């Protein structure tokens, strides 16, 4: 069983191969469509981001509200392909890893390869399981976006599959 | 005439929404278990096992099975001997939905299509009513996630395209969707009618119990042929490759114009969330 911790060390990313199952713990940030649009606007205008992007892991997800006494509600991955438009900018700006569900475009794959990053597939629809693996959840940006805001999550043993590794090998391309 | 107070409808919608968002149906669990047994791709099996574990976690913790608690699709068959007193029907349904999404700690996912501003209460419900005989109200509640909804398509085929054209349209929709809609999917198909009727029938066909086929022989053949070809695509659970890309195909047929053959394909994710009720 491969266990890894986010923020991810570049040495760790180097060892990951498409198709491997890994369990990720540590700090990750949620961002969906609207948050990505704003992050890219910040980058374009040179405005300081409300969270550290360099070396970070972004989770394409928007959680359900948390019940009292719980850090988070259900929080599985959303469809990554909708972030195709924004992801290369973020990888070029220093993002180390992304977590989502389903394939991403060739442009994203090339930006992952160019920057030595990694894309993980979480299991879509397993919202309760991922929600339960969140130990801390704190809103760090864009509160007006509600569930689409950026949340800083501390997670324990997120089950993931390496979907695109730093050499640009993709679990999805291997099937075509 | 039977008088039904709108509060009864609101409370029933509230109950159904809370249940559908948390529990997967027995039929769906059986299909997923069968898929896990049959699957040979290790990554796809891992995905299916995780999905089944997730259903248990949701049940034990009473939390949404998927964080995309969806838009609220409500299909209602109203007996024409029923008189509804109290609130206007759509208000009763919306109130049931917004209360359930608040009390169940469900995500609120509806927004303005242009400003993208979240409405904050998951209203409105997408309510489709049909007047039928009798004095009962039959309700189906289907929370619809958009990972799968986004991958749906409509085709205005010609009569010459025939059954082969229908099967091709279904298979093509699932092929283009690829890994994005949370496969293994349930594929709802509306054949015939008009542009809008085909789309609504595609959604309605998803309320048929998963694992069953149409009673009509030629329709069943289309469903079986499409399912076989979809599972030969090799997409597999989560797009990780494998034998099980769809859990089922369900077609609903309506008469159409002599010049046309509308085919709408509505994709549902592997949770196939649904709850039925009657007043």
Describe what you observe in this structure.
The complex is a heterodimer of chains A (176) and B (279). Chain A is α/β, with parallel strands linked by helices and 176 residues long. In chain A, helix 3 links the parallel strand 3 and strand 4. The two termini of chain A are 28 Å apart. Chain A contains five helices and seven strands. Chain A has a five-stranded mixed β-barrel. Chain A is 23% helix and 28% strand. Chain A has a single domain, classed as fumarase. In chain B, helix 1 packs parallel to helix 4, helix 2 runs antiparallel to helix 3 and helix 6 runs parallel beside helix 8. In chain B, 50% of the residues are buried. The longest helix of chain B has 20 residues. Chain B contains eight helices and ten strands. Helices cover 40% and strands 25% of the residues of chain B. Chain B is globular. The mean pLDDT of chain B is 97. Chain B has two domains: 99 residues, no CATH class; 131 residues, no CATH class. Chain B is α/β, with parallel strands linked by helices. Classes of the chains: A alpha/beta (176), B alpha/beta (279).
Secondary structural class of chain B: alpha/beta
Shape of chain A: globular
State the order of secondary-structure elements of chain A, H for helix, E for strand.
EHEHEHEHEHEE
The termini of chain A sit apart by 28 Å
Number of contiguous helices of chain A: 5
Radius of gyration of chain A, whole Å: 15 Å
By DSSP (H or I, 4+ residues per run), the number of helices of chain B equals 8
Record field, number of beta strands of chain A: 7
- Output the strand order for the largest sheet of chain A: 2-3-4-5-7
Q: Major sheet of chain A: size, sense and barrel closure?
A: 5 strands, mixed, barrel
What is the chains' assembly state? heterodimer
Instruction: Give me the Rg of chain B, rounded.
Output: 19 Å
What spatial order of strands do you see in the largest sheet of chain B? 4-2-5-10
State the CATH architecture of chain A: Alpha-Beta Barrel
């Amino acid at each position: 069983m491969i266990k890894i911790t986010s923020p991810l060390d570049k040495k760790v990313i180097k060892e990951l191969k498409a198709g491997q199952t890994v369990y990720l713990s540590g700090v990750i940030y949620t961002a969906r469509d609207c948050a990505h649009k704003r992050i890219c606007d910040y980058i374009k205008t040179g405005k300081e981001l409300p969270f550290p992007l360099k070396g970070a892991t972004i989770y394409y997800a928007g959680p359900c509200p948390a019940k009292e006494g719980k850090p988070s509600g259900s929080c599985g991955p959303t469809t990554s392909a909708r972030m195709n438009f924004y992801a290369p900018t973020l990888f070029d700006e220093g993002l180390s890893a992304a977590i989502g569900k389903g394939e991403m475009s060739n442009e994203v794959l090339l930006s992952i390869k160019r920057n030595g990053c990694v894309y993980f597939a979480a299991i879509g629809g397993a919202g309760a399981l991922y929600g339960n693996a969140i130990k801390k959840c704190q809103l760090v940006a864009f509160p007006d976006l509600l569930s689409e805001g950026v949340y800083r999550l501390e997670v324990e043993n997120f089950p993931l599959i390496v979907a695109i590794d730093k050499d640009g090998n993709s679990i999805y391309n291997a099937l075509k | 005439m039977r008088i039904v107070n709108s509060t009864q409808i609101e409370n029933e919608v509230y109950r159904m929404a809370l249940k559908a968002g948390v529990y997967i149906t027995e039929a769906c669990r059986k299909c997923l278990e069968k898929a896990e047994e049959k699957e040979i791709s290790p990554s796809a099996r891992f995905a299916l096992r995780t999905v089944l574990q997730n259903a248990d976690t949701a049940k034990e913790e009473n939390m949404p099975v998927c964080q995309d608690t969806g838009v609220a699709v409500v299909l209602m068959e109203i007996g024409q001997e029923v008189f509804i007193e109290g609130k206007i029907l759509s208000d009763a349904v919306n109130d049931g939905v917004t209360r359930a999404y608040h009390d169940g700690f469900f995500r609120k996912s509806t927004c303005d299509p242009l400003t993208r501003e979240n409405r904050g209460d998951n209203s409105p419900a997408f309510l489709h009513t049909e007047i039928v005989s009798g004095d009962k109200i039959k309700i189906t509640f289907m929370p619809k996630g958009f990972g799968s909804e986004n991958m749906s398509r409509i085709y205005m085929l010609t009569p010459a395209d025939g059954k082969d054209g229908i099967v091709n349209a279904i298979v093509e929709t699932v092929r283009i969707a690829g890994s994005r809609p949370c496969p293994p999917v349930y594929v709802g198909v509306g054949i015939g009618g008009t542009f809008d009727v085909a789309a609504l029938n595609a959604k309605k066909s998803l309320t048929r119990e998963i694992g069953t086929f149409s009673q009509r022989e030629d329709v069943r053949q289309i469903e079986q042929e499409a399912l076989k070809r979809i599972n030969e695509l090799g997409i597999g659970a989560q797009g990780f490759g494998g034998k099980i890309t769809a859990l089922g195909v369900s077609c609903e047929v309506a008469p159409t114009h002599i010049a046309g053959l509308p085919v709408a394909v509505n994709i549902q994710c592997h949770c196939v969330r649904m709850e039925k009720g009657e007043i």
